[in-house]
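Action item from last meeting closed. Structure (105 res):
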């Protein structure tokens, strides 16, 4: 999970993932969407591949990149603990607000 979190830490890589969330794309298409040189995009794609966040398949001379959402499952599970913590705290807050309203009525 640490490799995935480190890959997600970079805003350019998150932009790549956001694009790939909607559709597969070539490195050239991804480079057009980022304010960095194409070699930088290639480095970001390598990091994302190594983290298991993207797949690549050849298509003639091009490589098509696509999102691997499965790699985010472990992060989602980890974050689920925090979502539950906040859910229970917000429910407790809601209960206290309701009590306060009833006390003032």
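Sequence:
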């Amino acid at each position: 999970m640490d490799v995935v979190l480190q890959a997600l830490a970079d805003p350019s890589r998150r932009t790549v993932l956001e694009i790939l969330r909607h559709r597969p794309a070539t490195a050239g298409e991804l480079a057009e969407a980022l304010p960095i040189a194409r070699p930088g995009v290639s480095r970001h794609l390598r990091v994302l591949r190594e983290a298991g966040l993207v797949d690549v398949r050849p298509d003639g001379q091009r490589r098509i990149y696509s999102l691997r959402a499965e790699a985010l499952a472990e992060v989602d599970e980890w974050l689920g603990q925090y979502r539950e913590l906040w859910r229970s705290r917000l429910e407790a807050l809601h209960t206290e607000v309701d009590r306060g309203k009833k006390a003032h009525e």
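Note appended to the action item: The chain has a mean pLDDT of 91.
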